[in-house]
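Renewal narrative, Specific Aim 1. Our central claim is that a sequence can be written position by position from structural information alone. The example that follows is taken directly from our test logs and has not been curated for this report. It begins with the structure tokens describing the chain, in the order in which they were read.
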């Protein structure tokens, strides 16, 4: 039998957090390792407990869920992140995806989607609420447009793409060289 999937819940609404806890505790394959009601507490919880998955609200006191995601990425923590939000805004979705978020679930779908989302994300897959899945198609179309508008991008090797992603994530040359085990 596999060990349970470990999850942290970070949301400033106690009633919503309680509802998530109730749903998650109903699945014996998942263990909640902690809860936090604001961004700084959530980041500390993720750093301390290193859950496999963290469920983050976007709008929270102290640090937003997106700011927590940025910090988790900068600290290179192993936790995979899921954004739970009321915002179906495409720009916020794109920002979250650019920050390395694995899941994006609208709160209106959370009861139905949260368990499947956590399991998918823990196994390395992406999970997007079906009601906003069209945003992925838009991202793909924009990327294709960029490739045609900037043909030089099409000539990048996989290694160059990887370095470009690090640069886009505001990594320094030293950080990139350390991660890739190459000289600066």
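The sequence written for that structure reads:
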């Amino acid at each position: 039998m596999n060990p349970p999937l470990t999850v942290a819940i970070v949301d400033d609404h106690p009633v919503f957090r309680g509802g998530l806890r109730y749903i998650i505790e109903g699945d014996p394959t998942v263990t909640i390792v902690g809860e936090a009601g604001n961004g700084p507490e959530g980041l500390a919880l993720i750093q301390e407990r290193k859950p496999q998955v963290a469920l983050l609200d976007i709008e929270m006191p102290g640090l937003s869920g997106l700011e927590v995601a940025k910090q988790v990425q900068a600290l290179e923590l192993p936790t995979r992140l899921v954004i739970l939000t009321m915002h179906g805004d495409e720009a916020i979705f794109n920002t979250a995806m650019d920050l390395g978020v694995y899941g994006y679930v609208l709160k209106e779908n959370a009861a139905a989607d949260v368990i499947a989302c956590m399991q998918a994300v823990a196994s390395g897959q992406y999970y997007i609420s079906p009601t906003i899945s069209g945003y992925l198609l838009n991202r793909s179309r924009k990327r294709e447009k960029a490739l045609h508008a900037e043909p030089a991008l099409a000539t990048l090797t996989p290694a160059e793409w990887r370095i470009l992603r690090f640069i886009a994530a505001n990594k320094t040359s030293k950080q990139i060289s350390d991660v890739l085990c190459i000289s600066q």
